[in-house]
């Protein structure tokens, strides 16, 4: 028994001596410190690796600022104690934003891994308008017209459902459409027109069910329902983030995130009173409420504390400034007989207002209003962030308009009223 114990001890001791506890050495040789990459582009990474036994494999990756891999290579076999390995990684996704990314090289000896990192400054792709998606209601169906960057128009998709709202995320490449009385929420691939995901319509009221649909950041949309629920979903997949509830007796209608707060316009289910309700944007926790006497058409953040509200009161267009956290503010503009239907904002706090009587340009700095188009109702408006041109919907037409003069640059026929004009870019502006 004693001899067996001694032999066992010798075997165990020998195994411990042979156990590999140390990973390979990794040194990134190229690119050098401070390297930059313009998207779309490639970066060639070269690394020296060594091990007291043998380097088995080496892997290469580029990580975004959140540590998520955006480019990778298959494992490269080395099979030697020392060597240099090189691979070229392509960053072709034009949705990626500028920032400090990290090159990561991982070497393995089969038992242990070692990583080396080097910063890479990534410059986002130049912004390009890919298309404008025009969503309209045609005979109980939803029609989507695609106007490409050259001005060529073609049918993009037809859905057998009614429609009330539509938004688009260029980052997620998702066109999200909300039904009205009976139609579901349907997310289309903004490139292909195929259905990605849907949320069912469980209407028990026989009237409008999906009362609101808004983008709350580059990746998420907020769906509002007549039963008082509002829920945040990933634009790409439809997966849920949170579900919150409107105030008792109210329903959620229009939403935006300003200064780290989610703002929700909430009319009474029965009656004309409205409140602006504040939630946390990532959990939906109810925080506060503010008085509101407008039917909102849009929001524009002035800073982290203040927001411009655009809307209608008793048939007049109104621009209000509100301190979100504290309440209170003032009313820079009241536009007699010109209720605001939609807003498209430009840099420098310049806002294009679609009204029942024309298209206006409101400049906050001087609190001035200029008429760009008069004498016809403008259903909705959008702005091309690349050229600065405007797209508007009027009766039977979509028009491309000069933002300075209001001159019509191009027009396309449209069947049925436009619900939304949605610019689609290679990345978020």
Produce the secondary structure layout.
Elements (H helix, E strand, L loop, with lengths): L1 H17 L6 E6 L5 E3 L2 E23 L5 E4 L3 E16 L7 E10 L4 E11 L5 E10 L2 E8 L4 E7 L5 E5 L4 E5 L6 E5 L5 E5 L10 E6 L4 E6 L3 E6 L5 E6 L9 E4 L2 E7 L6 E6 L6 E7 L2 E7 L4 E8 L2 E8 L5 E7 L4 E7 L3 E6 L2 E6 L4 E7 L5 E4 L6 E5 L2 E5 L6 E6 L4 E8 L4
Description:
The protein is mainly beta and 429 residues long. The protein has one helix at 2-18, and strands at 25-30, 36-38, 41-63, 69-72, 76-91, 99-108, 113-123, 129-138, 141-148, 153-159, 165-169, 174-178, 185-189, 195-199, 210-215, 220-225, 229-234, 240-245, 255-258, 261-267, 274-279, 286-292, 295-301, 306-313, 316-323, 329-335, 340-346, 350-355, 358-363, 368-374, 380-383, 390-394, 397-401, 408-413, 418-425. The strands form eight sheets. Strands 1, 2, 3, 4, 5, 6 and 7 form a seven-stranded mixed beta sheet that branches. The chain has a four-stranded antiparallel beta sheet with strand order 10-9-8-35, with no helix packed on it. The radius of gyration is 28 Å and the shape is elongated. The model is unreliable at 1-17 (pLDDT under 50).
